[in-house]
Amino acid sequence: MDSKKKIATVCLGGCSGCHMSILDIDERILDVAKLADIVKSPIVDGKEFPEGVDIAIVEGSVTSDEHWHEIKLIRKRSKFIVALGDCAVMTNVTGMRNYFPLQEVIDEAYKNSVSNDAEGAEPNDPALLKLHDKVVPLQEVVKVDFIIPGCPPSADTIFYVLFEFLNNRIPNLSEVNKLKYG
Amino acid sequence: MQNITIYIDDKKLEVESGKTILEVCRNNNIEILTMCHLEGVLDVGACRLCLVEIEGVNKLLSACTTKVAANMVIRTSTERIKRYQRITTELLFAERNHMCSVCVANGKCELQNLGYKVEMDSIRYPRLFPQCEVDTSHSWYVLDHNRCIMCTRCVRVCSEVEGAFNWSVKNRGYQVRIISDFNTPWGESTTCTSCGKCLHACPTGALWPKAIVQGQLDKKPEIIEELMAKRKMGL
Amino acid sequence: MNRNDLKVISEKAKEKHKKYKHKICVCCGAGCISSGSEGVLLKLQKEIVERGLQNEVEVIPTGCMGPCNQGPLVKYLPENTIYQKVDCENISQIVQSQIVEKKPIEDLLLFSDFHPKPFINAHDDPFFKKQLKIALKDCGDINPEEVEDYLAYDGYLALGKVLFQMSPEDVIAEIKHSRLRGRGGAGFPTGLKWETVYKYVSEEKYVICNGDEGDPGAFMDRSVLEGNPHRVIEGMAIAGYAVGANKGFAYIRGEYPLAIKRFEQAIKQAKKNGLLGNKILGSEFSFDIEVRIGAGAFVCGEETALIASIEGKRGTPKPRPPFPAESGLRGKPTLINNVETFASIVPILNNGGEWYSEIGTPKSAGTKVFALAGKINYSGLIEVPMGTSLREIVFELGGGIQGGGEFKAAQTGGPSGGCIPAKHLDVKMDYESLMSLGSIMGSGGLIVMDEKSDMVDVARYFMEFCMDESCGKCVPCRVGTKMMHDLLQKIYDGKGTSIDLERLEELAIYVKETSLCGLGASAPNPLQSTLRHFREEYESKIEQDID
Ligand SMILES: Cc1cc2nc3c(=O)[nH]c(=O)nc-3n(C[C@H](O)[C@H](O)[C@H](O)COP(=O)(O)O)c2cc1C
Ligand code: SF4
Ligand code: SF4
Ligand code: SF4
Ligand code: FES
User: Is the ipTM of this complex over 0.90?
Assistant: First the structure.
């Protein structure tokens, strides 16, 4: 069925809490599935972000080179980007490292913290992502088409937004009292 | 006091002269957004959320500090006013570190509510992320500069209602900070009576009692007004 | 002293001056002092005594003469010959040549390093020729530390006239007739302001002289306070009489120690001579002035913040209305005017409002003092009739661009003003014309920029100033200026996007319309005017874009 929309969900610099909320839409996923295919998501298989996505739902902020390239790729390959959750929208908890210089944060995590067992060594494998100095929300890097704040946004809110889009309507969070931070 | 006629959003009203535009609007169920205004203490016109358009005046004036005058034609919710209210709100969020999800005031915060009122879904301006201190030196209370919006409600309550004059403001521009006594830790204050009024006056999670967990805060800013009303009656 | 004594004393002082054949003025304004004029003064006084010329030649320190960066300046009267960059080594040569041999020294003449043929009478130099000194009159000719000197120049006669021959209404009518507008920046009609304060009924009223002068590069008010403090005192006393106030405050910024010293000294002398204090000149009018020292915050020049500062509070503005005229210092009706405004009162009363109103342009009467700075040959202080073109100021009075460079723009009004590009060089310097180009007259700072100036950097610089000087009370200015500054920096660093530019423009309008006081309301001016005249410089810095 080609008229079905293609949905992708991605987690960048976030805690996956927003994805938990997506799962919390429970049986309503069936209503979604009638209208759309989930072509890429942490909960389905697939390595690379596919082409021709209609709605990309992105959790988390941009914290590193990897996220930066990923969101640029998502932008190129999707018609519509939905920023999901406070981290994607305004950096939230991930942004709490922004008050400090990056090196201080790394030292705190890998050298000073009592719980580390790496004897003060910083992770430096070239395959690992490179942290940016400052964490930024998605809209600082790409154009974002719809925004759902909240930490996490409730399953009701996520379902409402998806359902409206899939029925070719534009959701309005304020109108339905679903605007919420934290 | 004599009565005068004014027009607010095309509604004709007979009101007492000497009142502020804000008082008149509140008495007539016309919504005006405010943040630095607190019933019971003097107005300073700092947050600029209550700005209204007045015919014949080329500047926007703050409703909380401007008195009504005969035949004034006031507009409270034009597109321009709404746009500016949203920007002000965004700037307030962008200025300090408002991480609602980990804030004691989450769900009980006037700043959050303001965001919902102006339909702010995101902050369109780069956040400043200043390094802010948290003063936990007082045995019962906490001052968290990360959440302070510099409304100075605490300053006014402490001086005008409690008469303790503990709070004041230091520095200029975006570096302003609320200070206790002469810029010393709150716990060492010789003026604070630990009355707790400023905690209720504070609209955000900047002032709160210790032993409160995220989202459990219960602020009652209205007690300041009740207190002042009682005081006026000599109680 | 009563009114008749005043006339006698002033005649006596005139006599005393007449007995000298020559007068040598050594500029002791803050500019010349910093290049060593006090040493020159002492050496000169010694030299005159050593040569036994002390009955023939009078040597006095004076206030600012104008061409500040050519100092120390020494002026000979009556020839009006000015020597520049004088140091102690030159003194003996100057006295020998000028006084004894009556031959000027060409190499030391003012602007001899610019003109092939400098002028022996400085008034012939275009720098002076096109000037008309009203507010600055006598500044540079009299000793600001001696009240007798001021009296010799008809000082306090206007006050005498006002107290005995005019009613407050007459004074206000005369000021209104002159069409004088406030020189503190906004250009509010002075007569109207006086009348408003006069009309409020109150036992107590106040007069405040605003000498905070916080704009970078501005030193008009400092020069008046240093060079002719009695003129300001007299103007304030007249204002007090007109509006019904018996108490005045002069708010002078702490960075002006010399102005403060001379002004306080002048107050003492005036009091001693019955020109201030109880029953001035034997009339029924009493007026006293106190100096208040500002701590160097730009915002304390804003009238409501200044009043808070005088009251001993944190210097932050209050929303207006109520205006100070209704509820100012200690909640009482208060007249607040700028130094230069007060300095213009005495000449208006001496010569009549009609005379003043005919100078300048129909809407902007009189003269304006400008502080020339930047990439201009003769920087310093000038006073010209309103309506003089920018081209005349820059290329005739100012001697053109330094190092033969090209004029790119001039900033008027300091951080609250805007820039005027080369294509508008013929703009008339008056309130309305500058406004129509998106700039303002402001208090008179004029910074000239050459082709090497980067206008985005200029905007960034002024925004930084406003950001640092914002009092932090209201949200739009406190956060908005910081936000605009950061965006400007980002664009200047070549990291900006077109969205940043859009945000900047939106914020500029927002901050302008919503800020509590004039600081925030005018902070976007340099940004908006550079965008208006030099948009391509912004656009050329924007490379990447959000997709
Ligand atoms: C931020 C700011 C700074 C100001 N600084 C000065 C100043 O340094 N000197 C001054 O005379 N007026 C200054 N003003 C203008 C004063 O508020 C006031 O309008 C002026 O002193 C009135 O005098 P006038 O009518 O003689 O111009 C400033 C205004 C603002 C908003
Ligand atoms: S607890 Fe009371 S006395 Fe102490 S700072 Fe707050 S309001 Fe002032
Ligand atoms: S601590 Fe609270 S009440 Fe005080 S200025 Fe900050 S936000 Fe306002
Ligand atoms: S505009 Fe700026 S200087 Fe003026 S009150 Fe607001 S914060 Fe203070
Ligand atoms: S409520 Fe009026 S300015 Fe804040």
Answer: yes
